[in-house]
Amino acid sequence: MVQPNPYGQYSSAQKVRALVKGIQGHQRWNEALAKAPDKEAMLDLLQQASDKIGLGLSRQELAETPPLRDWIWFKSNSPLFTIGSKDFGPY
Fold first, then answer.
1. What does the alpha-carbon distance between residue 29 and residue 2 come to, in Å, rounded to a whole number?
2. Which contacts of 72-75 are long-range, i.e. CB under 8 A and separated by 24 or more positions?
């Protein structure tokens, strides 16, 4: 008998929050995400985590829902500046 998805009634944002909470502080996932060479590798890892938990998030949901959207953006781009950077003087 097929079990119903317990997260089926949740919004994408609620599922992403559950995913973030599920991997938050987990050393293996955090290291893997930090070492991911690009956006696609990061999405692969997040999709695996979502599937493992049973959230059923699509790659599009992962890529477009905060805070994961922001993590992926920072992985793909350089921030405009970093607080404490010496590039902007001794502020």
1. 29
2. 72/39, 72/42, 72/43, 75/36, 75/38, 75/39, 75/42
DSSP letter, residue 68: H
Helix (H) or strand (E) holding 28: helix 27-35
Whether the Cβ atoms of residue 57 and residue 16 lie closer than 8 Å to each other = yes
Nearest one of 3, 2, 1, 19 to 56, comparing CA atoms: 19
Domain range list for the chain: 26-76
Segment 25-53, tens digit of pLDDT = 889 988 999 899 999 999 999 999 999 98
Helices (H) and strands (E) in the chain, counts: 5, 0
Q: Note if the pTM is more than 0.85.
A: no
Which of 40, 39, 49 is closest to 74 using CA atoms? Answer: 39
